[in-house]
Write a structure and sequence with these properties.
Low-confidence stretches: none
Number of helices: 8
Number of strands: 16
Strand order of the largest sheet: 2-1-3-4-5-6-7
Structural class: alpha/beta
Distance between the termini: 56 Å
Oligomer: single chain
Shape: globular
Strand content: 25-35%
Radius of gyration: 20 Å
Length: about 290
């Protein structure tokens, strides 16, 4: 039988469309649904014995919560379109085995990195290593090559990007770094970095740290004005159900002092029921900034 594929993202979005076309080209059976409903999606995977699934992280999270047992036929989960949290990666690998692949690409440059299950077991935060044919350059704030583990702007060059006909370097607009073993990591959007008290602060790093807290389900950070430091962060936190609902601001600040640098400590913490996301599953930072300004 031909491998069955379930495409969860809308096919009007580049991510969903590209994977759909690829599956058709390979002669695979493709299962689609109008809109996304986690319970219906799990039932589709079970009924059609789906082996390949294409999702964004928020969809995968909801499906695991609704009916993880329905996903046991999956041999490959391609997760992309938004940042994959270490907690979600760990839960997926633990419950479903070595089936999770973390994809990173941009509209301008196409797909450039894939983290395999083995890569994720090496480090749950990685986007893996560049695909064959991809060249990567990370530049610091002075447009010089960044050292290992130094955060800079990610530039890529490949042969398949429609906007790269002249074989020029493409600035992805994303920040990241590479470790000593050649694994790449994201550090958020370049325009999200703030300078607080003379230190570069990356909201993405603070968010990643918060998401490791066992009593936190979701978290986001954004900049707010500060008279002393110029800018500082405000964090929005969604507490986990159960014990997480007892988490207080004082307890969370004490935990942060052990996991964050002093200049990364937020000025404000606000507990919320949920965070704003776009239809494709990316954190809506414009709406987040509006929330912070109120």
């Amino acid at each position: 039988n031909a491998l069955s594929a379930y495409i969860a993202p809308p096919i009007y979005h580049g991510y969903g469309l590209a994977v759909t076309i690829l599956c058709f080209t390979l002669g695979k059976k493709v299962v689609l649904q109008r809109g996304f409903d986690a319970r219906k999606a799990c039932q589709l995977v079970r009924d059609h014995e789906i082996e390949f699934m294409n999702v964004v992280p928020s969809m995968l999270y909801k499906m695991l919560k609704v009916d993880a047992d329905a996903l046991t036929s999956l041999k490959c989960i391609a997760c992309g379109g938004a940042e994959l949290s270490p907690k979600l990666a760990e839960e997926t690998l633990s419950r479903l085995g070595n089936v999770l692949y973390n994809l990173y690409g941009t509209s301008e440059a196409g797909l450039n990195f894939i983290a395999t299950p083995d890569d994720l077991r090496h480090d749950l935060r990685t986007i893996g290593k560049p695909l064959r044919g991809v060249r990567v350059m990370i530049l610091d704030e002075y447009d010089q090559p960044a050292a290992a583990r130094e955060i800079g702007r990610i530039h890529v060059r490949n042969e398949w990007s429609a906007s790269n006909r002249n074989n020029q370097w493409i600035d992805t607009g994303d920040l990241g770094y590479v470790d000593g073993e050649g694994y790449y990591f994201l550090a958020g959007r370049a325009d999200s970095m703030i300078v607080s008290g003379g230190e570069n602060v990356y909201p993405y790093e603070v968010e990643r740290s918060l998401l490791t807290h066992p009593q936190i389900e979701d978290a986001a950070a954004t900049a707010v004005p500060d008279e002393e430091f110029g800018q500082r962060l405000k964090v929005f936190v969604v507490r986990s159900h159960g014990d997480g609902e007892k988490l207080s601001e004082e307890e969370l600040r004490e935990w942060m002092r052990q996991h964050l640098a002093r200049y990364q400590m937020p000025r404000e913490i606000e507990f919320v029921d949920g965070l704003p996301y776009t239809p494709i599953g990316k954190l809506d930072r414009k709406r987040l900034q509006t929330m912070a300004s109120k």
